[in-house]
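Good morning N.,

You mentioned wanting to compare the apo and holo forms, so I went ahead and generated the holo version with pyridoxal-5'-phosphate. This is what I fed in:
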Amino acid sequence: MTFFRMRPDALRASIEADLSEGLLPACVIGSCGSTNVGAIDPIDELAGICEEFDLWFHVDGAYGGIAGLDPAYTEVTRALNRVDSLTLDPHKWLQAPLDCGALLVRDSRINQANYSLVPDYLASTNDEEGMSPQPWEHMFELTFADRSLKTWASIARLGREGVRKMVINCNNLARLLGERVKEARDLEILSPPSISTVNFRYIPKGTELSDGQLDTLNQKISDAIAHSGEAHIPTTKVNGAVSLAGMFSSL
Ligand SMILES: Cc1ncc(COP(=O)(O)O)c(C=O)c1O
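and this is what came out, ligand included:
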C-alpha cells in the first residue's frame, strides 16, 4: 500500500530543514496500523533515518502491532525489532478487556530514568542494585489494577495459534470486503484494505450528489445499520469525505 504512509524522503527533508534552522529534532513517531486506515509506515526505512540522525524512534502499534502474525504482513512489520519504543494495546486486537494499554521499551533504564520517583515509604521495596522490577518506577501511575493478568488471560484463552488465526481472519475479511466493494457499481473505495481495515462509501449511480449530500447519505447508512442491531459500521473521514469504516477486530 502506498497511500497514507509516512514518506521517508519527506521525513528526511523535514529533519534536515529543522537542523539547518538550528532546531533539534528528538523523536520520530511512526504507525503500525493507523486508526483510520490501518496504514503501516515503512518502519525499516524510518528506523534507518532515526539511526542516522540519532533520533528516538517510537511506533504506535496500539491497534496493528500484532499484524505481523499474518504472514501477509510479517515482512512489513519485521523492523519493529528496530524501534526504541512501541505502543501495543492488548485491549484492542488482542481482545483483553478495557483498559489495557502497553508500552514496550528497548532500554527500560531510559524509561526508569525518566519516570522513577521513589517516595520514602516505598524505598525499602526497591532492589538495592540493578534494575528495579517495580512498575511505578517506569510510568506515571502508582496504584493500578493487574493489567498483565488480563493480557495473559487473552493470550491463554486463544493460544498463540488462536491469536494468529484471528489476525489472519480479520485481515482476510477486510480484503474480501475490499474486493466486494470494488465489484459493486455504486460503492467507492476510500482507502484500500490494509490489515483489518477498509474504507468505502456509497455513491448512488445516476445521481449528481454534492460532497455534502454524499456525506449525509453515508452517515445515514451507518446510523441505519447501527439501529438495525445487526451490525455496526461506524463512519470516519478519509481525505475529508465521510466514509464507512469496515474494521474487523474479533473472532
Ligand atoms: C493506532 C492507535 N493508537 C492509539 C490509540 C489510543 O489508544 P487508547 O484509547 O488505548 O489510549 C488508538 C485508539 O483508537 C489507536 O487506534
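The pocket of pyridoxal-5'-phosphate is lined by residues 33-35, 60, 62-63, 89, 101 (CB under 6 Å).

Happy to go through it together on a call whenever suits you.

Best,
F.
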